Amino acid sequence: MRLTKTMRLTATAACAALAISACSTGGDGKKASDQASGGSGKTGGSISIESGEPQNGLVPQNTAESEGSQVEYALFAGLVDYDPKTSAPRLSVAESIETPDSKVWTIKLKDGYTFHNGEKVTAQSFVDAWNWGADQTNAAQALPFFDKIEGSEELAPGKDKTPTAKQLKGLKVVDDKTFTVTLKDPFSQFKTMLGYNAFYPLPKAFFNDPKAFGDNPIGNGPFQMDGPWQHNSQIKVKRYDKFPGKKAKLDSVTFKIYDKLETSYNDLRADNIQITNKLPISAMSTVSQEFGDRYIYKPESGVGYIGFPIATNPAFAKPELRKAISMAIDREAITKTIFSGTRKPADDFISPIIPGYRQGALGEAAKYNPAKAKELYAQSGGLPGNKLEIGYNADGGHKEWIEAVGNQLKNNLGLDVTFKPFEKFGKILDALGKKEYSGAFRMAWQMDYPSIEDYLRPIFSKIAIENGSNYGGYVNEDFESLLAKADSAKTEEEGLKLYQQADDVLIKDLPYIPVYTYMTSGAYTKGVKNVVIDSQNRIDLAGVELA
Amino acid sequence: MGRYVVRRVIQAIPVILGATFLIYALVFLLPGDPIQALAGEKRADPTVVAMLHDRYHLDDPFFVQYWHYLIGLFQGDFGEDYRGHAVVDVMTRAFPYTINLALMALGVEMVIGVVAGVVAALRRGRFIDNLVLISTLMVISIPTFVIGFVLQLLLGVKLNTDYGIDFFPVSFNEDAGFRAYLLPAYVLASTSLAYIARLTRTSLIEVMRADYVRTAVAKGLSPLRVVVRHGLRNALIPIVTFLGMDLGSLMGGAVITEGIFNIPGIGHQLFQSVYLRERTIVVGVVSALVLVYLFTNLVVDLLYAVLDPRIRYE
């Protein structure tokens, strides 16, 4: 595109005019930074960030997806939050969280927290919110999060049954600032769970009209709503000045809702939005040149596996066989060529960002070694007819990597690999649940709270066969007893060690083969700084400031 | 004329009913549990799934579910989606954007398409005619989403970052007013625009050969008057038909354009709802689109009478 001299002049003039009129509304990040002298950041200013349309109303107990949790992270403050670097829990609204036996927990609140409508945040605000979430008549997405608390089965007795209580027996309000939680069994990681959005408090106004609340939530966090949620368009929040915790630096943030990541990326490049934590695949090859050190690239919590229905298909029973398959997969090649570096080879069952992760824990099993794999495969007796079927859901972009894995197994082990696409993720789960499908399958796990335990029990424990994500039907009593021991550990550290021992059992057994961990990729414009993405792929907006 | 209109409106009722039934059945047949879709890539809690299935009658057979829907419909209740939003709210929120976009696209089509066609027809076989021929051919052969992304990148991003001209918003932005619709409307109109240019050209060339045009020229009327009053007026009949049909497809076909430019309109909504198996929204939106088709068809038929007095309805 060529410009004449006059056009150039006009363009420059327009530029100057924009710079002058800049500091008023959203989208002024770049222009503001043109005038800033650099150095220390400043309070104030407005930015826009990329978002998708949250699935449900903005009720923390009914939010199970990332878009909604990001907004709620700005609007609410929980008992604890997580250190963005280590993912360790830090006290937030809670003054102290103590337990003598990991079973009865006493939670004391700090002074001064209020909801955005002025109502005080009390012990009752938490207890009411949790009771609502635990009551199955409300059909909240976070329902299973409360099943560790005593009395949960009375509020959620299951399908076709009516709850016999309105309140969790295990929750007791001692005074305005104190409440106790009694769990069914000891659980040393309970404190870590409490940063999850299911455990946020709710104001009284919520219970009058939950539906209206969903469009215009009243939280207790660093930001408050600035007008109701404009569906499919945007959600605006502004700083809550009476927030006693770490106050937000920015005046306001607009969550701009996008349908296509290509569009939001173009908006980022044009400085119409300032931060995104989701980049389109098409941007991966150029983003680091374009954004330099403002390009964020770090592991996130998700892990991708190849799973085996151990319980239903005896052909997969031998751990050596699964190890042989694991060693025949070239993880490096798959993450580089198929995922353009948006994934990293997995080397533990635990995500790299979680306390307790050990680099290279999978050892030999995760190292690409076709010769050894072939040997091991022969030793294990192999698969009947050398046939292997791999199922995957066709709605999530898994075809390419599953076929690549299939080809590697074909070449390295001489297997006759076939593929079975399922239309939707739910379909594959149904088929596995009803034992109608007995081939290998693609699976993934994204944590709920940053605890090592969340990578073990929900996927590989006995109770997770019925109520969790143990689709393979894997059972190992050693694993179970180590989990139980770790649960009742007196300290976090002691618990961590025991959970790692449970992890070692999995590494020996390989009920699933971890293939890759997901990577967060984001970027931000010159106008902002202090952009930190935490282990749940959320941006800590209270900390962001204009550069 | 009045009776004709009434008859047409009454005829629309079975069409609407049939359409809702077909669409409902089709969405019903889509695999995947809408409640599972609410939980994303995680397995929804079985108790929650059961409660919600119960609330939305999801375990009932197809006809029972459709019956529930129809009963609601007759009471003026379009139902709610699985997240508790009233379908009517969802539609009244999304439709204005799409209507703006479609009308603007229609305007672009009409102005650019007809002018290009007229110019090409009057300068038949000359350079300008060939230019229109080639450029329309190009526009028709490039997929809409390619045109969309290229224009967005060139006029939205590059013009802004390289030259500081912030005239075309990259994505939809309420504050930008009508400017926000310019690029998407052009992209949405591009294919039809090419057809209109071709259609106008052919139609006008034919009309200009007619006896009454020759008579008009012989009477000494000004060339402009001959072309506009005697030529174009008669040449417009097939074009009006095309435009009328096109308004419906512009509204329905906005899925791609609205996606690229992030306009929170009906196409955007429809795409999401099909993906999330939101039956009530899909049926509501598509039925509304059927209504638009029926209505524009009626308007087109009535416009014939205005354009050509020999065509009258009774």
Automatic annotation (TrEMBL), chain A:
GO CC terms: ATP-binding cassette (ABC) transporter complex; periplasmic space
Keywords assigned: Signal
MF (Gene Ontology): peptide transmembrane transporter activity
Signal sequence bounds: 1-26
Chain residue ranges for the region called Disordered: 25-64
Stored PROSITE patterns: PROKAR_LIPOPROTEIN (PS51257)
GO term, biological process aspect, one: peptide transport
Domain Solute-binding protein family: 92-462
Pfam families named in the record: SBP_bac_5
InterPro entries in UniProt: Peptide/Ni-bd, SBP_5, SBP_5_dom
Gene3D superfamilies xref list: Dipeptide-binding Protein, Domain 1, Dipeptide-binding Protein, Domain 3, Periplasmic binding protein-like II
Protein name in the entry: ABC transporter substrate-binding protein
Organism from which the protein derives: Streptomyces kaniharaensis
From TrEMBL, chain B:
Signal peptide: none
Subcellular location: Cell membrane
Domain ABC transmembrane type-1: 95-304
Coiled coil location: none
GO cellular component, one term: plasma membrane
Membrane-spanning intervals of the chain: 12-30, 97-119, 131-156, 176-196, 235-261, 281-307
A biological process from GO: transmembrane transport
Cross-referenced InterPro entries: BPD_transp_1_N, MetI-like, MetI-like_sf
Keywords: Cell membrane, Membrane, Transmembrane, Transmembrane helix, Transport
Protein name according to UniProt: ABC transporter permease
Acyltransferase as UniProt keyword: no
Main location as per UniProt: membrane
Family: Belongs to the binding-protein-dependent transport system permease family.
Keyword Metal-binding: no
Species for this entry: Streptomyces kaniharaensis
Membrane topology: Multi-pass membrane protein
